[in-house]
Each structure stands twice: as C-alpha cells, then as structure tokens.
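hiii, so i know i said id send this last week but things got crazy w the move. better late than never?? heres the sequnce for the chain we talked about at the cafe, plus the structure i predicted for it. fair warning i was half asleep when i ran it
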Amino acid sequence: MKPERILVALQGSDSDVSPLKAACALAPLYEADVRGLFVEPDPAAYMLWTGPGAAGASVVSSAIDTVREEAAKACEDAKKRFDATIAEHDLGDAASFKRVTDSPSEAAEQARLVRLLVTCPRAAAGRGPLADFTAACMVEEGCPIYVPRQGAIPPKSIAVAWDGSKEASRAAFAAAPLFRPGVEVTVLHSSRNLDYHDRAASAPNRLTHWLAARGVKAKTQEIDGKGGLGDALLDAADTADLLVAGAYGHSRIAQFMFGGVTRQLLTAEHGPSLLMAH
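okay and structure toks below
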C-alpha cells in the first residue's frame, strides 16, 4: 500500500486516455496508488416530471432506465481502459477502480485525503459530464487538479505563477514532488495593480528560497499583464511542460465555476499541462 493516492476521473470515452497515462506517470513521484473513479450522476435527480398520471411516470421511468444502461456500458469501457493502462505501467498492486452514483458535490467527497485529481482538459474547462465533479473537487474539497495537455509528464520544465497568495502556495505545495533537481523551474510574477502589502507577499524570493531547500535553483521572470494576465502567463509558460497556479473561485457563470485569469488558464486549448489548487 502506498502512502498517497492520485484520483483519476473517468467517463468511459477516449477522453480518459491522457488523464490515465498522466496519473500513472505521476504516481511514482508522489509515492501514490492510482484510483480510477467513474462518476455516474444519479439520473433520477436530473429527470424532469413530464406530466401527471401513469403515462408521464412511465416516460420518466423508461428514460431513467436508458440512462442507467448507457452509464453501465460507459463504466465497463472505463474499467477496461483503466486495467489496460495500469498493466502497461506495471501498477497492478497500487491501483483500484470505483464507480459512484451521486451528485457532483457528494461524489467529490472521494477526493478527500487525495494528493491530486487528474482530469481531462474538457472537464477542467467546464464542459462534459465530469465538469461539475471536477469543479466541486477543487473548490468544495480543496483537492488540487492536474490537467494533462502538451509536454513531458513528469515535467522537465515547470513555470509557477506566483503572487504570494494562499492559493498559489497550495498549488506550489501540491507540485512539490515534481520540483526535482535537474528540472528547469521559472517563477512568473507581476507587480501590476498590487498595493504595498501585496507586493511584499508576492516577492518571488519567498518561493525561490523554498525551492532551493529542495535542491532546485529557480529563475524568476517578471511578466507584464497589461494586455491581460491570463494571456501573459500562457505566453510566458508556452515552452514549459507544466504551469502551476492558484485558482480563484467566483460565482458560477455560464456553466463555469471560475472567472478571470483562472478561467483563461482552464479553458486554454493549447499550452502546458496545468496543476491548479484553490
């Protein structure tokens, strides 16, 4: 049994491939086992009453049965892909699979005592069946998420968006096993729109000293967020394998849990993989 756990969210489609491979590649660095989680929302909670009488009830019942049959097939596909990927990475003794039928918030309780949730880019961007679950894990349960995109996994180069906030600190701490000697680390920072107190907290040397104690010599790069901080971060991290950043929660708008810079990072179609914590 491993001391840590990495959770990978599955939906029984081709979108599962990159999260599964990423979770298996990250597991040795985190000394973690891999738990595949197929999240099946309770269909009864999403069905609208179609009208009074037995006819309406029959329509609802039939629709629920169809949804459950499709979910069972998707779960079977997810399990097959999970088993094959685990075998490919020789993690048989450090892997498990679980199916849960619940609301996204209740299913997100599976993320407790978990080091990372690995999820597909589509779910992180607020689209698809795992979107609400992914957001609930990060915001409600405080579980960091890893979104595999382009670049090496484990990363050989890491960019860290640093402003001294508790969210940025949590993200850096979540990425700690990835900060290894030989990995190129760049601390991205900006002093735009910061008052005196914020400038002191956001000093990049706070992070570089923390990294130095782990045998990592990081360089710093000030970015100009004049044209938008999200775009500036993505441009500066373009050649990195991983971007580490804090997430800033806002009210849910247009099916997204986040706004501003966080939303830009989560919805970017290109760029490095993303590790984010709230």
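btw The mean pLDDT is 88. thought thatd interest u
miss u guys!!
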